[in-house]
């Protein structure tokens, strides 16, 4: 299965925010009840992030869910 470019952009945004506030992949994974490998897959866009999970990630990373959504290029 090919990665969707939007999943890659969202994963990159999650990673950027996580690094910005100094949260490790392990810490984010623990807060979400996941493995750090799953966080890696999300950040690389290999696994799609469900909306409910994205909301939880935004809460842990203290931002809005819309911070992860790419702007419309139109």
Question: Could you characterize what this model shows?
Answer:
- This protein is an all-alpha fold.
- Helix 2 (25-32) packs across helix 3 (36-43).
- The chain is built from four helices and no strands.
- The termini are far apart.
- 57% of the residues lie in helices and 0% in strands.
- The model has no long low-confidence stretch (mean pLDDT 94).
- The longest helix has 16 residues, at 5-20.
Outline:
The protein has helices at residues 5-20, 25-32, 36-43, 51-60. With 74 residues, it is mainly alpha-helical.
Salient structural properties:
single chain; about 70 residues; mainly alpha; 4 helices; about 55% helix; about 0% strand
Write the layout of secondary structure elements.
Elements: H1 5-20, H2 25-32, H3 36-43, H4 51-60
Query: How many DSSP E strands?
Result: 0
Return the structural class.
mainly alpha
The number of helical segments is 4
Strand-and-helix sequence, N→C?
Answer: HHHH
The proportion of residues in beta strands is under 5%
Low-pLDDT segments, ≥5 res:
none
Gyration radius over CA: 12 Å
User: Which whole number gives the mean pLDDT?
Assistant: 94
What's the overall geometry? globular
Percent helix: 55-70%
Give the termini separation: 27 Å
Main beta sheet: none
């Amino acid at each position: 299965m090919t990665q969707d470019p939007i999943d890659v952009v969202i994963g990159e945004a999650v990673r950027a925010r996580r690094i910005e506030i100094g949260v490790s992949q392990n810490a984010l994974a623990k807060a979400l009840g996941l493995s750090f490998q799953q966080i890696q897959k999300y950040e690389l866009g290999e696994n799609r992030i469900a909306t409910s999970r994205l909301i939880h990630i935004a809460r842990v990373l203290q931002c809005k869910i819309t911070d992860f959504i790419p702007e419309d290029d139109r």
